[in-house]
Amino acid sequence: MDKILEGLVSSSHPLPLKRVIVKKVVESAEHWLDEAQCEAMFDLTTRLILEGQDPFQRQVGHQVLEAYARYHRPEFESFFNKTFVLGLLQQGYHSLDRKDVAILDYIHNGLKLIISCPSVLDLFSLLQVEVLRMVCERPEPQLCARLSDLLTDFVQCIPKGKLSITFCQQLVRTIGHFQCVSTQEKELREYVSQVTKVSNLLQNIWKAEPSTLLPSLQEVFASISSTDASFEPSVTLASLVQHIPLQMITVLIRSLTTDPNVKDASMTQALCRMIDWLSWPLAQHVDTWVIALLKGLAAVQKFTILIDVTLLKIELVFNRLWFPLVRPGALAVLSHMLLSFQHSPEAFHLIVPHVVNLVHSFKSDGLPSSTAFLVQLTELIHCMMYHYSGFPDLYEPILEAIKDFPKPSEEKIKLILSQSAWTSQSNSLASCLSRLSGKSETGKTGLINLGNTCYMNSVIQALFMATDFRRQVLSLNLNGCNSLMKKLQHLFAFLAHTQREAYAPRIFFEASRPPWFTPRSQQDCSEYLRFLLDRLHEEEKILKVQCSHKPSENLGCGETSLQEVASKAALLTDTPYASDSEKTLIEKMFGGKLQTHICCLNCRSTSQKVEAFTDLSLAFCPSSSMENLSFQDPVSSSNAQDGGVMQASVSGPLEEPVVNNPVTIVCDSVVNERTIGSLPDELRCTENISVPNESNKGLTNTDVSQKPGSESTPSVTDLLNYFLAPEILTDDNQYYCENCASLQNAEKTMQITEEPEYLILTLLRFSYDQKYHVRRKILDNVSLPLILELPVKRTTSLSSLSESWSIDIDFTDISENLAKKLKPSGTEEACCPKFVPYLLNSVVVHSGISSESGHYYSYARNITGTESSYQMCHHQSETLALPSSQSHFLGKDSPAAVIEQDLENKEISKWFLFNDSRVTFTSFQSVQKITSRFPKDTAYVLLYKKQNSTNSLSGNTASGLWVNGDPPLQKELMDAITKDNKLYLQEQELNARARALQAASASCSFRPNGFDDNDPPGSCGPTGGGGGGGFNTIGRLVF
């Protein structure tokens, strides 16, 4: 029969005839044959299967072999034995190589035919050894796929025990050697199918024997982390990722990133190759593992690897967005890489040139999936342009391309950025070893205490949180300058963009410290604030004069000493009233006007003068329950607040002393001789202290009893009303009337005629105790209204008045306001003042009982003039109508109290507590309750923001020049920040490595971030009150 079949298949008969005869041969398999005939038939059919010249011959071989093996099983079992199979696997078949897939297919079919025979067990044992040998020889994808088919059908052939681990490891290596040289779609699809079969085999083995999984993954990492230039592992390893249980991510990544045996070069190679896996079309969860590894490296602060890999692979990841199969994973990885790379715009700018083409392409195809993808992409792009504003030439084409897609809110952008940074807690693995010393969850940067510099830190943070002022400072073009404003701009830029948890403002401190401030000793924050604002104002004023006199010369903007500022500012004291365009930045932001009006009660002649101010110093209202207030001395208070510095002289034809008490004469005589710029020590009025007489004290106590709200906690509104109340100058406080040429009783009133953009209020908390001759702090609690309505009575004669910059309203006479009389003024104008609404922006708190000791910290929030709740506040404020004769003062029960309560709830999440290096979330309730909870902690300096004001800078956002709320930084600043951010990441990485080497003895303690309601501020100093620098330098390592 074998001869007949052999002659038939090689004959030239028609194919249909051949098929009929073959059918007869198959049917004859039922008849008895002797062993020799069966063996001859098995030998022939094996030869047809393995060496058949055409598909027909191979098909005939399969059909006949299957039929005869079924009916003659013992004979086939004897033929298909271990020796025969081993010969096929090791030597091949005649001319057929042993690695030919046909041999493996033949063995696969043979096993199916004798599966019920006892001898199959011997074959299984043989194949367990042979398949391990085969994978060690790195078979091609096709052969490996056929082997996977065999082992999937016959799991008994898979090596057992320790050999199973070896087999899996070798199979991983084999996959790592797969390559596909074809670019044809058919061949590529076949290649992907072959790889999928092999990866599925590994998955089945991992499930059956879990002990093989971890060694297999170690082998995967060994392959992709290899630095051997002669070997590049195949991207097909990506096919294994989808089979790794996601529950193992945390454990595996932590083990991997903390393994001291893994070198940086190997980790970099591994991460790069994992990112390359995004190209594999059918791989699932590759993006999840890539992002997990990126987070794991950030958690152990290996920033060098992250930087190198991001810059190397960001363009490749972006290019993968063009391919639909891998687009979702590529977008996830791209988003994480860009959003976490926050120390420099370098990575983002690598993909910027490619964005427009991608957007236009996907917009044109009109597919729903493309539109959904573009919405996600544009959100990412907006976040990056917000974070790295200042490149209009790069961003304007992108803005035009994505203008039709929704733009995320600023709050959402900030949240995304804060959660994505390498130094963000939310960006680290849940079980990472230690918390990073990066920015807190607030996204704000602290200021390192340089040694009792909390007075500066608290003021700087309050100014930084004054949004409009910050934006104006950052928008200034100060390249080449070395002025104090340039240093402030530098400091603001770092607070906004540094990756550090806290920044050390050493340069700014040295430049802005008043000369009489002793280094490393506690100072008064109010005094520092006034000096700082005046210095900034004087510098800008001098530069304007220089520019007007030397328009064609390069001013150089060199550093100006305090004495130079003073001498040049003296030239400007007699200048006429400045227009808005001529005002300095400090005048625009903090400058207001106060008109003092004195009427002689004898002849009814009047005098008045208008003075500029940057802050109002509010004395406490006297009451019978506060006897120590009778010793409140304005000059000593001034000394406690600002060292007795009067901020300017008052010039002009209408100038005259406001009152004639001895203290005023001493101070005003000095002030009239000098301008703020000189600020000599002799200006300090500490020794010129006068105590009011008992008659005044009695009048005050009697009068104050009539004041509303005196029986409860006073509010800032009460203190402001008291400040603006009419005062009767009598007895020793009489006014010298030039018309009468004698001392006369007089009435003095003060009115605010021009309100500032930011209203600074200083509470005079330091009084002079005559009995013990010391300054004492008034610890009384003061209620802080969220909304303050400032009565402003504008006049028409301001333009005709001359004035000089900025006298502090800490007048000696108003500190003698113990003698004020709340009586109607006969000279009061009939018109009512306009109420200008202000919202509380920041509060500087002093903790302690003396101005020379204690600690400062500040509460603050971002406020602009455009938020809806503030508009409501303004609308409500205009409806107030107080019927009493004192209608220009605010009562505590005004309708604003209702609005205040409403805003308190709306704005609760926007407050921050700045305590040197430490920045935490807090609430307005905490601000209100600070003194009741910590009696030594009292509000000292308040910053209120005027509402419904027009922000002159806001127009830039529409043009695309400002992508976020803050203006773009100058290149010089951006480069400095980028350089420092990279340095910081390197410091963190070195610190992490040092801690890893000293893990047994390392001890790093972190206070938890969060609400700070239960913690008193602590002491002030290099480490007290949150002033420690943390692990920002190598020298600060703690072991």
From TrEMBL:
SUPFAM superfamilies (alphabetical): Cysteine proteinases (SSF54001)
Keyword Cytoplasm: no
Keywords: Hydrolase
Pfam family, one: UCH
InterPro entries attached to this UniProt entry: Papain-like_cys_pep_sf (IPR038765), Peptidase_C19 (IPR050164), Peptidase_C19_UCH (IPR001394), USP (IPR028889), USP38 (IPR033840), Usp38-like_N (IPR049407), USP_CS (IPR018200)
GO molecular function, one term: cysteine-type deubiquitinase activity
Ranges where the record places region Disordered: 690-713
Gene Ontology cellular component terms for the protein in this record: cytosol; nucleus
GO BP annotations listed: protein deubiquitination; ubiquitin-dependent protein catabolic process
CDD domains cross-referenced by the UniProt entry: Peptidase_C19H
Signal peptide location: none
Domain USP stretches: 445-947
PROSITE patterns (alphabetical): USP_1, USP_2, USP_3
Name of the protein described by the UniProt record: Ubiquitin carboxyl-terminal hydrolase 38
